Every structure is written in C-alpha cells, then in structure tokens.
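Exercise 7.
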Amino acid sequence: MTSTEPERFRNELLSITTANPGWRVQVRHVAYDVDTQEQAISHEATFPVVAWGVVRAWFLAGGEEVRTDPIFLTDVGLTHASEYRRAHSALDPDSDPQTTVDITVLLPATTVDIAEGR
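Solution. The predicted structure, written as tokens, is:
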C-alpha cells in the first residue's frame, strides 16, 4: 500500500504480554475468484504464538475496536493478527482474485500419561 492510497486498516499496539508455550495460529489465505465465485486456499501455514497484544484498530468505514491479538513468529519476523491481515489481504474491487485471511488460534496440545492398570 502506498501513502497515497486510503488506509483500509490502521492499528496501534497498546500493550503486550508473553504467551505460555504451545499456543499457535493457523493462517489461511483464501482467494476468491470474482468471475467464477469460487474460493480456494492459496496459502496455509502454522506459526508459534510468542505473545498477546492489546490492539486498537480503526476501520476505513468508521469505527474502532480494542481487541486482543496473538503475536506470532512468521518466516519474516514478528507480527500480530491485525497487521498480518492488513499485509496479506487484497479486497479491492479490481483485485483478481480477492484475498482474505483467516486466522485461527490453536490451543496448546495436552497429553495425559495413563499408567496401565490404573
């Protein structure tokens, strides 16, 4: 996005705290073909969550929201969910395909040892 284009998303990281080990996010880039109206996953990855951030987000259509975002480590560095969506979405009417980003927080896996005979 260039500085002359309107900002679709604007956000500010207000505070941050570390995450317990084991949390992850799964990201999916979903491409939507405007002509055929078909959707397909164009990219999928899982990244470790290293912190949680309180983010204030403003929207082009107006309004704002304060929310908790996972902060995760990608192949290129740290990012939070709101920033990742901004960087990887292509929602402009002229985009073909249009791309949205789904982010799912995955709970840490738990294992329970069950001794035989108990």
